[in-house]
Batch of 3 targets.
Target 1
Amino acid sequence: MLQAHGKPSEVPLKHKLVCTCENHRCVNADHIAIVPLAKFVRDRLVANTNHQIRAAKIAKARRQSAKLTADDVAAIRASDEADHILAERYGVSRSHVSGIQARTKWRDHSVSPWAGMGAR
């Protein structure tokens, strides 16, 4: 095997090149490692590969610094009042209230490991 920057130029069978800095666009030779395929798959399964779980974690982090609370959102969704009245009461924009009512904002994320797999 030829070597470039102290790294083998050929990847052995059942091995994979991975970037250790988790930046998939990184080209730094010091950040590249050769790992067994089984370890790579195991690490990826443990990592945040379920996008719905990741989205729920991001949403939860954003909500911790949000103006509205979960109780405010429930009240907005249950209310029959006009958007502009609710927006003024809670100090948010009218479009934000509409998004909450339409469930495009403050969506309820499921953190089930089976979420997103579809009914079969």
Target 2
Amino acid sequence: MSIIEGRSDNFQKEVLESSVPVLVDFNASWCPPCRALHPTLEAMAEDSDKYKIVTVDIDAEPALASNYEVSSIPCLIAFKDGKETDRRIGLQPRKRLEKMLGVK
């Protein structure tokens, strides 16, 4: 599976109604830690069908960022059964991201 682009028009379906855990990465193209995190997220997305990785550009989707009270980026929020289960700010190692999703 590849990274899914999160937008206002697909967030409900891709994240809140997902049958598997979802890691949402709120980011921006101008953010160096966000860019540094992207290869890890790409690798995770390619390696598993047990969860989804969704990326939300806060500049393109400010309403989503506001709705989830994102004030610093990268902001990583784990969802399971439509509910937020964990949240981390900043560059995170893959093992921590997998733990957030409950897969390791």
Target 3
Amino acid sequence: MQKIRITKQFNFEMAHALKDYDGPCRNIHGHSYELFVTVVGEPIKDVQSPKNGMLIDFGDLKRIVRANIIDQLDHALLLNADTQEYLINELKKGFANILLVNYQPTSENMLLDFADRLQKHLPSHIKLHSMKLRETITSFAEWYASDNE
């Protein structure tokens, strides 16, 4: 059984604020995120299939990641749901795409969320291998399935 890994890169713009953080990231600020999603499995071995030799069509992987992550977060403001209610209500007066999550919206926690989202939607013969989320040109977080078994 020979396995192959493929990776697809995604880009999105998103703002966030870290609740009660002791530095400047407690303020609303944005990033141009780069997300790299790597999946692993055996390529299709069906000579009758137009996808013969593919692990998964890059277009299919793109559709899964876009539907479950990118389309929801692109140009959104991500905030911890524990943020003061009055502040959330004030922000909603001026901004339409505010998403509340049950975690501090760090790159690390976002990757944990993304892993959970993607694993539910990948075809059964494909496993999520790793993800890399670049927040700035010099800073990124990584998630590996092998670290989470």
